[in-house]
UniProtKB/TrEMBL annotation:
It comes from marine sediment metagenome. This is NADH-quinone oxidoreductase subunit D domain-containing protein. Coiled coil: none annotated.
Amino acid sequence: MGPYHPLQEEPEFFQLYVEGETVVDMDVRISYNHRGIEELATHKTYD
């Protein structure tokens, strides 16, 4: 499931393993969006 939408606060990735119509296992990855705002702000001038 993905890609992650930028407005989603904490994106999750679910990988489902199925046999027929039954879910037999699942891997979950929980992460965050990093936009580098702080780094961008250090190089900008505010004139």
